[in-house]
Design goal:
Largest sheet: 2 strands, antiparallel
Number of helices: 4
Number of strands: 2
Mean pLDDT: 77
Order of helices and strands: HEEHHH
Distance between the termini: 51 Å
Helix content: 40-55%
Strand content: 5-15%
Low-confidence stretches: none
Structural class: mainly alpha
Strand order of the largest sheet: 1-2
């Protein structure tokens, strides 16, 4: 009788855990595929040039934005962004379970939403979708 209860408890805890891990693995694989095939086209300022290609003016509505290629961004800016936003960026697959658990604990202790477990990938996902 006790062995049936123990088996039932183990199965009721283990099975949802396995399903959840499988779901996250599938989500991470799908997220990586989507990011590889995703193209983002932000609204950028329009350049007005003369017939010789000399820049005359920029036209923009709300914000003056220019597109910068990855090579044009200084490495220190990239390092600063990663240091501020997601220190473990190169160590996880887009979802930082440690950060999520830490955020849940901090939020529970505070009794309100104080901290998030977002990564750079999570933030990109929010912006795009």
């Amino acid at each position: 009788m006790i062995s049936k209860i123990v088996k039932w408890i183990i199965i009721s805890i283990f099975l949802p855990f396995v399903i959840l891990v499988g779901f996250f693995i599938m989500l991470i694989k799908r997220l990586n595929w989507m990011l590889i095939n995703l193209s983002i086209h932000p609204n950028v300022s329009t350049k007005i040039v003369d017939r010789n290609g000399n820049l005359l003016a920029y036209i923009f509505k709300d914000r003056h934005r220019l597109y910068a290629k990855f090579d044009e961004i200084p490495s220190k800016v990239i390092e600063a962004l990663i240091a501020i936003e997601d220190t473990n960026f190169f160590e996880h697959q887009g979802i930082s379970f440690d950060a999520i658990i830490r955020a849940i604990i901090v939020d529970i202790k505070a009794g309100r939403f104080v901290e998030g477990g977002s990564t750079l990938i999570n933030n990109l996902w929010k912006i795009v979708f």
